[in-house]
Design brief:
alpha+beta; Aminoglycoside 3'-phosphotransferase, Chain: A, domain 2; 2 domains; two-stranded antiparallel ribbon; 11 helices; 38% helix; disordered N terminus
Length: 358
């Protein structure tokens, strides 16, 4: 979810509309607080996969999340999983939004969906928000809050929340390597030699791993929300549909895959939703060192997780791009991914040849 301040919403795109009256009737039947009043629907314009909508009942406002249009992988965009996690995680992690209702009846809007609380704050994407621009240390404070919250999330006792069967931690990293490779072959519209190279490299450099934790699986700057008054206060984490049990350093690697530094190549800058027009962010090395200090985890094999993060990012982008190629979405933002995807694969190969903590 990429819900931010009120100006993050747009009129619902014509090809992404749904039966609002059916949803309204369903929510009234679920006794969702405030749903007895008229419902106004707008869409969150950010994000590139799951579709998110604001449901405004006047005194109560919620967010509806559903999978993207068209066929999706069976294990992807799992609204039931996301609802299950958020229905309990808010008890242990303040930055986890509360989920209110889940509907698996696809006849209502053509897909499962769930309802979660609507939070107000700032989501930072490609440009620094104006209200943060005059705060000189805003990038550093956001960087630190991002890392600290990730470490705190990994410290959550998932057993106490009843999530011990959310995933299968044993063999998690190997399944990530093979699973994303299979998804690549199903979604590709061209061959990329780099993906075969990366697949082999990852299998050859498997680390011993650490004890399992909850893993977000898409942790990055534009999947969190900060207080609009304090860039050092992280209010919420979004996009929990891939949350599972596994190796927590996979989340660190995912964060690194989206991160940029001033000396990064133009290719690397194509990959990130971060503001490239500001300085003062922690470096990748500083991110890793702060995470290690906060979490107490060994990060000696972080290069592997960085490469794995870029490898899976290639596939995520390809899965989005192929929906545009096949006409399953008319969102013109996705056309540019045709050039970004091979750049991301090259970046991953480069990362496999370097040392982050050397």
């Amino acid at each position: 979810m990429n819900a931010g301040a009120g100006d993050d919403t747009i009129e619902v795109r014509s090809d992404e509309q749904f039966d609002e009256s059916a949803v309204h009737e369903y929510l009234r039947a679920q006794a969702l607080p405030g749903s007895e009043k008229p419902m106004r629907v707008r869409q969150f314009g950010g994000g590139a996969a799951n579709l998110t909508y604001e449901l405004d009942f006047g005194d109560h406002t919620y967010v509806l999340r559903r999978p993207p249009l068209g066929p999706v992988a069976k294990s992807a965009h799992d609204m039931g999983r996301e609802y299950r996690v958020l229905s309990v995680l808010h008890k242990a992690l303040p930055q986890a939004p509360r989920a209110w209702a889940y509907c698996d009846d696809e006849t209502l809007i053509g897909a499962p969906f769930f309802i979660m609380e609507r939070l107000q704050g700032t989501v930072v994407r490609r440009h620094m928000p104006a209200h943060f621009a005059d705060i000189k240390d805003a990038p550093r404070r956001m960087s630190e809050a991002l890392v600290d919250t990730l470490a705190d999330f990994h410290a959550v006792d998932y057993r106490q929340l009843g999530l011990a069967d959310l995933g299968k931690p044993e063999g998690f990293v190997e399944r990530q390597i093979e699973g994303w490779y299979q998804r690549w072959h199903k979604a590709k519209d061209r061959d990329l030699e780099e993906m075969d190279t990366l697949h082999a490299w990852l299998l050859e450099h498997l680390p011993p791993g650490d004890g399992p934790t909850l893993v977000h699986n898409d942790y990055k700057l534009d999947n969190v929300m900060f207080s609009s008054h304090d860039p050092g206060r992280l209010l919420a984490i979004f996009d929990w549909d891939m949350c599972t049990l596994g190796d927590p350093l996979c989340d660190v690697g995912s964060l690194l895959a989206y991160w940029i530094e001033p000396d990064d190549s133009p290719e690397a800058r194509l990959l990130t939703p971060m503001p490239a027009d500001t300085t003062g962010w922690l470096t990748r090395r500083e991110l890793v060192e702060r995470y290690a200090q906060r979490s107490g985890r060994d990060v000696v094999h972080i290069d592997f997780y960085h490469v794995l993060g870029l490898y899976r990012l290639v596939v995520i982008l390809q899965q989005i791009y192929i929906r545009w190629v096949r006409g399953q979405t008319r969102d013109s933002r996705f056309e540019a991914l045709g050039e970004i995807i091979p750049a991301c694969a090259r970046q991953a190969v480069t990362a496999s040849e370097q040392r982050l903590l050397s």
